Amino acid sequence: MHWFGGVTFPLPEKPLNIEEMDKLAARLTQDKEVLLTIVEKAVSKDFAGSWPVLAWVRGLVLAAMQVWNWKKDGNLELAKIFVRVEKAFLPGYYAPELLREGNLCLLPPVHRFGWYSVQAFDNLEAGDAAACVRCLRESLAACNVAKDVVEFLLSSLPELQTPPPSPELLEMAEKVRTVLAMYPADDPAVMALKASPVYQKVAYLIEDDI
């Protein structure tokens, strides 16, 4: 792969072990924007075609993920890059038996989070937003230091956001509120209304105000 003026890295004639790669990647975190630029260039190449290159890209991406201020700045593109790299790295680095929910506890926390993130984005691509949310929430139990990343994704992925209610739905909710206000909370008429299909459509608008 190429970075910094066309210099090939890792150098084929001078292989690095994974600890050395991680240390070098950690040094690059002093300037997050420069590191992000390096990450983006790295993944623009065929990073999965060589194990030394894939291991290096993994180190770069993990370093960027760890130093990024997810609460303040967020970065959906970096999160997607992390998923791409984990999707390439995990099945080649770990035995298939380990990449199952019952055995994920044997993986390092960051790769447990990576596994759930891959499942989340795969579900999102398949159109199953609910399964995506479930995987993201389960990833917190696997790697609680990823809380800020998960909160960012849950609030930023367009597919997971609830669309604003239509004017018709808002009008219906207001009519239901008016009816509810006419009766005591324990009145049978209130219970009957809350059990109706009409109320179920607007319940989230009404109950959020309570």
List keywords for this structure.
single chain; 210 residues; mainly alpha; 3 domains; two-stranded antiparallel sheet; 2 strands; 62% helix; disordered N terminus
Widest sheet, order of strands: 1-2
Total domains, how many? Answer: 3
Specify the overall morphology: elongated
Biggest β-sheet strands, sense, barrel: 2 strands, antiparallel
Name the poorly predicted regions: 1-5
End-to-end distance, in Å?
57 Å
Structural class: mainly alpha
Number of DSSP helical runs: 10
Residue fraction in strands: under 5%
Q: Find the count of extended strands (DSSP E, 2+ residues).
A: 2
What is the helical fraction, as a range of percent? 55-70%
Radius of gyration: 24 Å
- The ordered string of helix (H) and strand (E) elements is EEHHHHHHHHHH
Mean pLDDT: 89
Task: Kindly describe this structure.
The chain is mostly helical. It has 3 domains: 1-67, no CATH class; 70-76 and 85-161, no CATH class; 167-207, no CATH class. The chain has helices at 18-27, 32-43, 51-67, 76-93, 109-125, 129-142, 147-156, 167-181, 188-194, 197-207; strands spanning 2-3, 7-8. The protein has a two-stranded antiparallel ribbon with strand order 1-2.
Secondary-structure blueprint of this entry?
Blueprint: E1 2-3, E2 7-8, H1 18-27, H2 32-43, H3 51-67, H4 76-93, H5 109-125, H6 129-142, H7 147-156, H8 167-181, H9 188-194, H10 197-207
Antiparallel strand pairs: 1-2
Helix pairs in contact: 1-3, 2-3, 3-4, 4-5, 5-6, 6-7, 8-10
